[in-house]
Design brief:
heterodimer; A: mainly alpha; globular; B: 301 residues; alpha/beta; Rossmann fold; 13 strands; elongated
């Protein structure tokens, strides 16, 4: 990469991090909500394997749900920020500086990934304290899987950000896409019990592959057993990124 | 003189709408050049094509000898821009914005002195969202000036500001010009154009319909002058012969003529005849009248 291409990248990333911390709700959504979901559901139903509580059976992994929620909140926040910045002419103003488009967007993605990792670390810590013996998952492997999944979902976020007409629609539109995606991800309901067509549809979304990979990491079967999902996340990332560079609007 | 900006036969369409039909103009070093016209006339589109932020469909543009599209990166180092109705991140602090911008250019001015000059020194640690309209615009001026650009583009700089804030901004813009920087601005405020601009181009429906100094345009299109005075003397009409028709309304007399010498002529006759005048005023057309005459409608219609 030629020198100066990423001019201002670290400064902008640090600045956007500070600005995000100053947003009263942004911080809560990114760090506290997934943690709360994890702790409350984990307390009630247990983590990992469904707990044999009489009469209560929760057929999904609470830790994976919380991890996916972290990724989804990062994407929602990205879509909101981009649409607000676009509406306010902030993107346009940044673009008419020597900042390259890659730097402007790269800084946003970096901030989101930093908060994803921070939120996940918080979750792991809480898990070790509150549910001793259950969180035996490999921290680095799990984190890497979440980051890869977040990357892929974020690229879809850029497509969403292009579709959002005004900032007011950012929240409803991203929710309308991301939550059904989560429902179809196979986390709550095994994919092989889906009708064929719906299953094919579910494979087009990064969440499905992220859940499968996380489940694999959790069970200890590892990355190699889920290379198809890893490849799918990379392919979807490339496809959504290519699409968003075509449809993205700066103003 | 070699122009700093030269635009020839510029055209730009958005789908089926033609924003700019045919714009040609030249801006010279050290002047304040104003593109004036109503909303939707093509001012902003023209300016953004010149800045290199929009790709024209037709015509050629040269800024400081560079092509705004081909040499976009080189040009960005040498021009400063302020967009219409721009915002920054709500919770960015003034110093943070200045610091980010300053880090993007190889050579920058003393930012503390710049903030001081723009009256923002006390607001260094304030969030953008807490600034007043005038302070926001002054911050955008600061960001546009941070790398000592040779040309500054100011798009509708004072729209939405109260008269006092507007006057403060005018003084700043004149200051920029006096330091040797060329200023290209757009406005739909005729008073602003008349006060600030060395030369103006009137744009309507994407075409330049007139170009010149404000005084030239007024002289050319609206030469009529009116002198109104009040006097208790008798026979005023008879004594004011030779200056055309005199209208009388009680003790108020109105004379209409044309040209720069008309008012002097009226004063000379009053003096020669020894008419005792209690009040005297002149009505001289402004750029607003020129605009009305050329387009057949007011600028805010």
């Amino acid at each position: 990469m030629p020198r100066g291409m990423l001019r201002g990248f670290w400064k902008l990333t640090w600045l956007e991090t500070k600005i995000f911390m100053r947003e009263p709700m942004g911080f809560v959504g990114a760090l506290l909500v997934p943690l709360l979901v994890f702790v409350v559901l984990g307390r009630a139903f247990g983590i990992g394997k469904p707990m044999a509580t009489p009469g209560v059976d929760i057929p999904f992994n609470v830790a994976i749900l919380a991890a996916i929620l972290i990724a989804i909140s990062a994407v929602q926040s990205l879509v909101a920020i981009i649409s607000i910045y676009r509406e306010g002419g902030i993107l346009k103003r940044l673009r008419s500086t020597p900042l390259s488009p890659v730097t402007i967007m790269g800084a946003q993605v970096t901030v989101k990934l930093v908060f994803t990792v921070a939120s996940l670390a918080l979750l792991m810590l809480a898990g070790r304290r509150l549910f001793p013996g259950v969180m035996r998952v490999n921290v680095f492997s799990f984190t890497a899987a979440v980051v890869l999944g977040t990357f892929s979902i974020l690229s879809l976020g850029f497509v969403l950000a292009s579709l959002v007409p005004t900032a007011r629609f950012a929240q409803p539109i991203s929710a309308a896409v991301l939550y059904p995606m989560l429902a179809l991800s196979g986390l709550f309901y095994p994919l092989d019990r889906f009708p064929r067509a719906l299953r094919g549809f579910a494979y087009l979304f990064p969440t499905t592959h992220a859940v499968a990979l996380l489940q694999g990491v959790w069970d200890g079967s590892g990355w190699s057993a889920h290379w198809v999902n890893v490849a799918a996340l990379l392919v979807l990332f490339a496809a959504y990124t290519a699409l968003s560079t075509r449809v993205f609007r700066w103003e | 003189m070699i122009p700093v900006i030269s635009v020839s036969r510029l055209g730009k369409r958005y789908g089926r709408t033609t924003a700019v039909r045919d714009v040609s103009l030249e801006v010279f070093e050290g002047e304040i050049f104003g593109l004036i016209g109503p909303n939707g006339a093509g001012k902003t589109t023209t300016m953004e094509c010149v800045e290199g932020n929009r790709v024209p469909d037709a015509g050629t543009i040269s800024v400081l000898g560079l092509d705004p599209q081909r040499d976009a990166n080189a040009l960005r180092q040498r021009i400063g821009v302020q967009h219409q109705e721009a915002q920054l991140q709500k919770r960015i602090k003034v110093w943070e914005a200045v610091d980010l911008w300053a880090s993007l250019y190889p050579r920058v001015v003393d930012t503390d002195a710049l903030l001081d000059r723009l009256g923002l020194a006390a607001k260094r640690d304030s969030w953008f969202m807490t600034l007043s309209g005038g302070q926001k615009q002054r911050l955008f001026i600061a960001l546009a000036l941070i790398h000592e650009p040779e040309v500054v583009f100011l798009d509708e700089l004072t729209t939405g500001l109260d008269p006092q804030a507007r006057r403060a901004i005018w003084a700043l813009v004149t200051g920029i010009r006096d330091r040797g920087t060329t200023v290209f601005l757009t406005t739909h405020l005729m008073e602003e154009a008349e006060r600030l601009c060395d030369r103006v181009a009137i744009i309507e429906h994407g075409c330049i319909i007139e170009l010149g100094t404000p005084a030239e345009l007024v002289r050319k299109h609206c030469p009529e002058r009116t002198a109104v005075f009040t006097s208790d003397d008798a026979d005023v009409i008879e004594r004011m012969q030779g200056l055309g028709a005199v209208e009388r309304n009680g003790v108020t007399y109105t004379l209409r003529g044309a040209g720069d010498d008309f008012v002097t002529g009226v004063i000379n006759v009053i003096a020669r005849e020894g008419i005792r005048v209690r009040g005297f005023r002149t009505e001289i057309p402004t750029l607003e009248d020129v605009f009305l005459k050329l387009t057949g409608h007011g600028i805010r219609d």
